């Protein structure tokens, strides 16, 4: 099914509002989810609405949180999300980080006690839109075997980065520290497609191509991805005094409880380090240099990080956003949720 950005946002907003979010939180949450679908990150777009709606309806997301920003130093602060929606809390916290970085050159802002925050490049691009460079990391529920291990310990702990160029584009990296994000497994399930055997293992620790048999994911590049997961866990969990490692709450375990997740935004104001215009021109130059690298056999072009998503944005602007029919039918229906996710199984649909 193809839909316009505006229609998709309205449908998601209606559903989240009906589930219990305030109109304003539903609007922001819908914006973050459409951001993902609009650039082809379907694993973190409208596909998640029914899960969020069920969690909201069952009380596992605070619909009236007392958001508070505590400035803890000239360049630091903690955003207390009070069990509120992570998509909204992470955006509000980034606004605080942007204000500090504009004034003091750098900002490090933690978000504590929030729910899942979706495709986290939304927040780094929020800063890049203000001529700032940003990094963001967040906790995710334990579903990854550490290098050499047979039981899950860390989450898919993603890392996002964005920097502004001189022509309005941004160079963006947004990646789970697993070979693939869990949402990609869910997306493969929703489309009944198999997955490559390098993504995940089954209950016996053997590689699997069946998304329904996945019991744990694999880190990128063995011990290196495993080390990055550790880093994300320290920065967005231990640093903020939150549950960490395999104590991070599961996405599907108990939909009546707040999740207590954390996120850390690091924002750098380039003008405190170099000439801003030169910085932006050099980012544009980097993008052009990368595009001009001679492609390897089997490749038509070298893309800059994030360019694959930029190309999808252009395509969807012309043709409409492609979303799975079942998801569209759910979005246009009167149903808030189908009681599908609260099944105590950390690897639920
Ligand atoms: P991915 O593997 O699709 O892409 C990773 C990065 O590689 C992206 O920056 C992408 O632009 C870049 N890339 C892909 N193909 C490229 C190419 N041909 N040339 C140059 N660059 C290319 O992303 P992944 O790891 O599957 O993550 C998907 C989403 O899941 C992200 O938005 C992430 O934030 C989100 N996520 C969120 C979590 C949460 O708890 N909030 C947990 C895990 C992931």
TrEMBL record:
Signal peptide: none annotated. Pfam families: Ldh_2. GO terms for molecular function: oxidoreductase activity. It comes from the Bacteria. InterPro entries: Mal/L-sulf/L-lact_DH-like_ah, Mal/L-sulf/L-lact_DH-like_NADP, Mal/L-sulfo/L-lacto_DH-like_sf, Malate/L-lactate_DH-like, Ureidoglycolate_dehydrogenase. The keyword Oxidoreductase applies. Keywords: Oxidoreductase. NCBIfam families: AllD (TIGR03175), PRK15025.1 (NF011599). Belongs to the LDH2/MDH2 oxidoreductase family. This is Ureidoglycolate dehydrogenase. It comes from Ureibacillus manganicus DSM 26584. The lineage of its organism: Bacteria, Bacillati, Bacillota, Bacilli, Bacillales.
